[in-house]
Amino acid sequence: MLRSMKTTYAFDLQGFPAGYSLWITALLGICIPFLSIAQEPPRPDVDINLFIAELFPVPPDDSEDLYEALLQLYASPLDLNTATPDDLAATFILSEEQLRSFFDYRAKAGALLSLYELQAISGFDIYTIKRLLPFVTISVKAVSLRDALKNPGQHFLMLRSGKLLEQQKGYAPLDSNSNATTRYQGPPFNGYICYRNARSGAYSFGITLEKDAGEEIWQWNARRQILGIDYTSFHAQILNRGRLKNLIIGDFQMQAGQGMITGAGFSLGKGAEVIRSVYRSTTGLKPYTSATEATFFRGIAATWSVTTRTDLTILISKTKRDATQEPDSIHSNITTSLPVTGYHRTPSEIEKHNVLGEQHVGLHLLHKIASQKGQIGLTMLHTGYDSFIQKRDLPYNRYEFSGKQNLVAGLHGDYHWQNIHFFAETAISKSGGSGAIGGFIASVGKKIDISLMARHYARNFHTFCGNPISEATRPINERGAYAGARWSPSRKWQWSTYFDYFRFPWLKYQVDKPSSGFDYFLHLLWKPSKRLNAYLLFHEKHKQVNDPAAEGNNPSLIRSIKRTAMFNMDYEIPLKCAFRTRLQYGELKNAHSKGSHGFTIVQDMTWHFSKVEISGRAAFFKTDDYDSRQYVYERDMLYAFSIPAYYNTGIRHYLMLRYTISKQLKIWLRWSQTRYSDIEKISSGLNEINGSKRSEAKVQVMYQF
Predict the structure, then answer these.
(1) Whether 13 and 140 share a structural domain
(2) Residue 676 domain-assigned?
(3) Distances (CA, A) of 114 to 34, 79, 139, 384
(4) At a CB cut-off of 8 Å and minimum separation 6, what does 285 contact?
(5) Are residues 690 and 583 in the same domain?
(6) What secondary structure does DSSP assign to 576-597, as a single string?
(7) Angle between helix 48-55 and helix 63-75 axes, rounded to 10 deg
């Protein structure tokens, strides 16, 4: 924890003349070499669930993608002496003003000698540094690959398993009185194994194995890339070997530009971070270590430094995808959908497992402008399938991709001018459909930041690996404009807001006419001390949906309104205990209904002892139905993500223990339970539980070599 630093070095340079920073830098240049020999600030464990909850108090649909991106960053922290502005921006921690201050400091003072030196940078307060520490490191000098292998930054083996304690219908014997004719094919527990050996800026090697509850323990079908366990992922990466900046074999992702063509999980949607949410960082090639069984490349990729400021990346991928396929009179079969759930528990799910071949060949050329003012890039990606893709013949699918091959190409760039950061990307797909996004982030003094962004994705724009900011789940058939502002009148107060307007020029699923909508967000943060912070937020979204009272031949739309209000308070005594209280309310209504309402009250507690950490929650929730369900982040084991839905009426509690047996060995135990007071059966189908409670037990063991 940062609080273990000696307060002698906790400088605060805000409000002092610029010359003071130079004096402090000179003093640190003399003292820090001796400090760094003795001790660096300890790299703390990070609760990424809590980190994301601060960015997204109202959880987005892709929370798990962001979780995995931050988890990769935690496993391979950034070297502050070689990090680019895009690298640091991708942490979502530093503002434009702080980014500019950091790189100005590094340009004047040279390479950082210790993480303590962050306290000498203008605009870096203790709260910011504390959040940044888990994701950064410092290498004073480059090391050979052989030396790096002898001294890895991360080297661990982790095993995790868990199961529901109540029996679900999918594991019960077949009942002659039931309409169900199948059951889950595997045992009711899940399993996860992860091995990682890495050093930031040098190399990374990892293997991930995973099976979900209900899946068979062992399967083998090499043609489908099913290699024993249901899901297997592997990567080997080396970095910064002369002109070879990055080489990955195995599973990987690519983030370039604003994510129009290749957009990995390193992205931020609309949330409490109202400024940086509009910008995507070009982080390049990254190993894929997630257990999510889609949206990644599998093959080989490399980044080569053509000149000192120009990099060329080439990727080749050949993988298998889950697919729903049907016989066809023209083609041997056609693919009508690409499921991404990753579940292979029943015969019908197993039938779809990795049956579609997917090939990618891509290129990315990036040129950096002098003095780190900006960059410009060219991206091209060709995608091929071994089955004809044709979505079902429905009106809203008229402009969806159809065929076996797609090509998408585009240009992206960004530029810093004084206190303004401009960015843009445009792309066109084989169909002729285009996409474009552009905007800027600006600092108006030290207290006000603003962001503006506009986007356009044609109804026939097809990008399969893109992930730019959008209201819909994919960048297609959408136009929109976003404006955000943040005002920090003092260190104790911060006010944030955004407004986003969106329009869908063509039909959508369950929306039978062109539609539009908007949402706005208000967030007030109060930090009276280093131990206490609290915030209030309000979020309201208006969207058009089908009018259920309209006649089938004459569709009409009505406006649906979803509101969320929240109060959250955190209090922490470092290294001892922490408490969090949350009150959350939500409603969903339209012109023909009284609406669905719900609320939850949550109390979290964490206690720290010398070798043991205990955390728990007690929550009460009440909603009219599933439409007003409440999502609340829960603390979970390292490398695990939890965000259940609270609905109907009941209580939810969990208890988790982390025990540090030795420096190398840690163990986690977690028990959670939801009790409902107004239902006798939970869920439906094969997930149905006959009763009013749902309990889960999990265990995780991590050995660090």
Answers:
(1) yes
(2) yes
(3) 10, 11, 9, 48
(4) 237, 246, 248, 252, 253, 254, 301, 303, 313, 315
(5) yes
(6) TEEEEEEEEEEEEEETTS--EE
(7) 130
Say whether both 611 and 565 belong to one domain.
Answer: no
Residue span of the structural domain in which 591 resides:
577-705
Separation CA 185–CA 346 (nearest Å) = 6
As given in the structure block, the two tokens for residue 459 are 């109804």
**Residue indicated by tokens 């595997």:** 186
Q: Is residue 280 part of a domain?
A: no
In the numeric block, the tokens 């001294």 are attached to 151
∠ CA(68), CA(238), CA(192), 5° rounding?
Answer: 35
pLDDT for 688: 94
pLDDT per residue over 425-457, tens digit each?
999 999 999 999 999 999 988 899 999 999 999
User: Phi and psi (nearest 5°) for 460?
Assistant: -115, 25
CB 317 within 8 A of CB 353: no
Specify the pLDDT at position 1.
35
Same domain as 686, residue 589: yes
Angle of CA points 350, 351, 357, to nearest 5°? 105
- Same domain? 533 vs 615: no
Q: Do residues 563 and 667 both lie within one domain? A: no
C-alpha distances (whole Å) from 24 to each of 10, 14, 108, 112 are: 11, 13, 13, 14
Verify that 24 and 120 share a domain, yes or no.
yes
Helix (H, G, I), strand (E, B) or coil at 426: strand
| Distance separating alpha carbons of residues 102 and 87, to the nearest angstrom | 13
Half-sphere exposure of 1 (CA within 13 A, CB side): 9
Environment class of 61 (CB within 10 Å of its CB; exposed 0-12, middle 13-18, buried 19+): exposed
CA-based diameter of the chain, in Å?
84
Residue 639 and residue 528 in one domain: no
> Comparing C-alpha atoms, which of 523, 513, 514, 562 is closest to residue 542?
562
For 650, phi and psi rounded to 5 degrees? 175, -170
Instruction: Give the global pTM.
Output: 0.88
| Of the residues 553, 574, 595, the one at which a domain ends | 574
User: Domain end: 129, 147, 165, which one?
Assistant: 147
- Number of domains the chain contains: 3
Contact 37, 97 (CB under 8 A): no
- Phi and psi at 483, nearest 5°, equal -140, 130
Sign of CA dihedral 13, 15, 18, 20: negative
Q: How far apart are CA 586 and CA 627, in angstroms?
A: 10
Reading the block at residue 584, the tokens are: 């959350």
If one counts every other C-beta atom within 10 angstroms of the C-beta of residue 578, the result is 18
Which two three-digit tokens encode residue 1? 């924890």
Continuous segment of H or E residues that includes residue 234: strand 231-241
Give the rounded percent of residues in the chain with a pLDDT score beyond 70.
90
Model confidence pLDDT, tens digit, residues 149-164: 888 888 999 999 999 9
Q: Looking at residue 291, what DSSP letter applies?
A: S
* 126 neighbors 110 (Cβ within 8 angstroms): no
Task: Determine, yes or no, domain membership for 458.
Answer: no
Burial label for 206, CB within 10 Å (0-12, 13-18, 19+), is buried
Give per-residue pLDDT as tens, 552-564.
778 899 999 999 9
Give me the amino acid identity at 664.
Q
The beta-strand segments (E) located in 257-321 are 284-287, 297-307, 310-321
Whether residue 619 is contained in a domain is answered as yes
Task: Please compute the mean of the pLDDT values over residues 389-405 and round it to a whole number.
Answer: 94
Burial (CB count within 10 angstroms: exposed 0-12, middle 13-18, buried 19+), residue 472: middle
Question: What does the pLDDT average to over 484-495?
Answer: 93
Helix, strand or coil, per DSSP, at residue 4: helix
Token duo for residue 347: 């015969």
- Round to whole Å and give the CA distance between 695 and 697: 7
| 659's tokens | 């025990």
